[in-house]
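JOB MANIFEST
job_type = single_chain_structure
chain_count = 1
residues = 252
[input]
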Amino acid sequence: MPAPEDPAMPDPDMPDPDMMAAELALGVLEGDELAVALRRLVHEPMFAAAVERWRDWLAALFADWPAVDAPAGMAARIEASIDRSQNHGVAGDPAAANDNQRGWRMLALAASIAACLLLAVTAMLALRPAPAPVRIPVPVAGPAPLIAAMAPTGAGTPVAAAYDPARGTVRIAGAVDVPAGRSAELWVIRGTEAPRSLGVVADATRAELTVPAALRGVIGADAVLAISIEPAGGSPTGAPTGPVVAAGKLSG
């Protein structure tokens, strides 16, 4: 009497176990092959683990994709095409027909895996955040400085002045004769408006004054800058009280 078959030992004539595990996970097995696969699932731990790996992998790919029904009649057309191919090429040869049928299933399995990979790649590309735009700073040229050459009203040399609109400062360079105990004060005059003080010039040869924000709109092309001699610390009245020693018009 032949020894009983050990259900734990795989049959060497059976198909590749990993391929059968993939086919079982995809649900493409039928009839006797499905029964064989189910028996192996029960008796072969390695085969069961392979099926579980395939199911986990396929489930991860399809988790975010809704099921879509195939067009009506698609399954029938595929089966008819397979039958025609089998009958045309291997008529009368059951073994060859069986091999051909397995070849078609392997092709279907490969196509299914390729479709899964395509869906996964497409999903990753769609969910990948768009690259942040590269912002290239473009330097913006500030307003050009205004220049004035303040000519002396008496003896002496012109005094240069430059107003920087971006910084709101006036720079003065030149020689102004300031008597002891007195101060030189810088004024701006726009049109026929009254002079407005820009501050006391601490150094009569070189100084930089910060123009008050309220007066920066007054300084512009054609405005006149003037220097007067005032009591120490500047005019007490807010208007020039001493002689004007230099004056000149601003221009761009």
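[summary]
The longest strand covers residues 182-189.
The chain has a mean pLDDT of 75.
exit_status = 0
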